[in-house]
Design goal:
two-stranded antiparallel ribbon, 3 domains, 10 helices, globular, 359 residues, alpha/beta
C-alpha cells in the first residue's frame, strides 16, 4: 500500500485502507454500511474525508440515521449528511414497504456519492445547493396516473423505487433482455447524464471532444429512443458499444460507458483491498487508479473478470461481468477517464488515447 498523500492535492486524500475499514475503538474489521461495531458495540459515524469514528466522541449523526440506518455524519445536530442532502423527494412512507425501499436505495447511493467526492466531481451548484438531486418515487396504483420512469432531467434524477425490489428488477431485466441490471448500475448511469451537462457547460472544447467520440447529441433524443425500442440495436453493436442500449443515442452511449468506467475503477480498487492483485503493476487507490491510461486499467479488469466469471460458474451463479471491452469501447472509456481527471485538476483538455476509432 502506498503511503497516504499529504494534504488534499488535486484529489481528496483517501480515507484509509480503501474499501476495508477497522473499528476506531477495537480495530476489528467493520463494513461500509455498519452503524455499530459488532465486536465492541460502539456506535459508528462515517465522514467522507476522515473515515469512521466513535459517534460518542466526534461529530453529529445524519438526521436519517433512525429511519434508514444512515451511518454518515452531518455538520450540525439535526442536519442531513452529504449523501442524504442529495435526496430531495423520498417515497410515500405511508406505504409500509417504502421505508425498506428507501433504505436500500440510500445504502447504494452513499458509495456513489463517496466515489464522486473522492474523484473531485462537483456535488453542489453555484448557489451551494446539492446536485445531482434524487427523487425517489413509487407507483400510486392509479391506472390514470402517469408512470414513474427512471431518468434524468436538468440535474434531477428520478428513480422508480420498484427497482429496490429484487424480484421486480429481475422481471424487468428479463423482459428487456438485459444481461445486467442493478441499483448501483442505475445510479451510475443516471449521474452520467448530469455530468455530461455539468462538465460541458461553457466548455465547447469538451463538448466537441465528446461528440467526436460518442456522436452528435443534437439528434432528436425522443425519436432515437423510439427507433431503438422499435428496431433494436444493430447486429454488430458489440464491436463498438458496451451494451445494446448504448446504441440508442450518444447520451446513452456516454452514460452506459461512464457507468462501466465506475464499475471498473470501483471493482479494481475493491479487488486490491482484498489482496487480489493484477499480474501487471497497478497503483492502489481510486485517486491513483483514475490517472492510469484506460488500456492499462482495462487489461487488469479483463483479467480479473475472467477469473471471477469462472468462480461464479463454479458456484452455479450467473456470469459476474457479462460484457466485452472491445477496443472502441476502451477508447470511449479513456475519453471519460480523461474528462474526469481534467475536470478535477483544471488541466488543459486531455485528448483521448491515440487508439480511439472514428464512428
Amino acid at each position: 500500500m502506498l503511503p497516504p498523500a499529504v494534504g488534499r492535492g488535486p484529489f481528496p486524500t483517501p480515507v484509509g485502507p480503501v474499501q476495508r475499514y477497522r473499528c476506531p475503538s477495537c480495530h476489528q474489521e467493520i463494513f461500509f454500511r455498519n452503524t455499530a461495531c459488532l465486536a465492541c458495540g460502539i456506535q459508528l459515524l462515517f465522514d467522507p474525508d476522515r473515515g469512521f469514528s466513535d459517534m460518542a466522541e466526534t461529530g453529529h449523526p445524519c438526521a436519517n440515521r433512525g429511519q434508514i440506518n444512515c451511518n454518515w455524519s452531518a455538520d450540525e445536530p439535526g442536519a442531513l449528511c452529504l449523501s442524504c442532502q442529495h435526496t430531495t423527494v423520498v417515497p410515500d412512507l405511508s406505504v409500509p414497504a417504502n421505508i425498506d425501499r428507501w433504505e436500500r436505495i440510500e445504502t447504494v447511493k452513499r458509495p456513489l456519492i463517496l466515489m464522486l467526492h473522492r474523484l473531485g466531481l462537483p456535488l453542489f451548484d453555484e448557489a451551494g445547493m446539492p446536485v445531482p438531486r434524487f427523487e425517489l418515487k413509487g407507483e400510486t396504483g392509479d391506472a390514470t396516473a402517469p408512470r414513474v420512469l427512471t431518468g434524468h432531467a436538468e440535474g434531477t434524477i428520478t428513480l422508480n423505487i420498484a427497482e429496490a425490489d429484487d424480484a421486480e428488477r429481475e422481471r424487468i431485466r428479463a423482459e428487456m433482455n438485459e444481461p445486467y441490471r442493478t441499483l448501483t448500475g442505475h445510479l451510475r448511469h443516471e449521474v452520467a447524464h448530469h455530468y455530461w451537462d455539468v462538465l460541458t457547460e461553457a466548455r465547447q472544447d469538451r463538448l466537441e471532444t465528446l461528440r467526436a467520440i460518442f456522436g452528435d447529441d443534437r439528434q432528436d433524443y425522443g425519436a432515437a429512443l423510439q427507433a431503438h425500442y422499435a428496431e433494436g440495436a444493430p447486429p454488430d453493436w458489440a464491436e463498438s458499444y458496451i451494451s445494446a442500449y448504448a446504441t440508442a443515442h450518444p447520451w446513452e452511449d456516454f452514460a452506459e460507458t461512464w457507468a462501466h468506467v465506475f464499475h471498473l475503477l470501483d471493482g479494481l480498487e475493491t479487488a486490491q483491498a482484498f489482496g487480489l492483485k493484477a499480474p501487471q503493476a497497478m497503483p492502489e487507490g481510486l485517486e491513483r487508479l483514475v490517472r492510469e491510461p484506460m488500456p492499462h486499467l482495462a487489461q487488469a479488469w479483463v483479467e480479473l473478470t475472467i477469473a471471477l466469471n469462472a468462480v461464479n460458474e463454479a458456484m452455479g451463479h450467473e456470469t459476474f461481468y457479462p460484457f466485452v471491452l472491445a477496443p472502441p469501447v476502451v477508447a470511449k472509456q479513456e475519453a471519460i477517464r480523461s474528462l474526469i481527471v481534467e475536470a478535477n485538476s483544471g488541466d488543459a483538455a486531455v485528448a483521448p488515447s491515440g487508439n480511439a476509432l472514428p464512428r
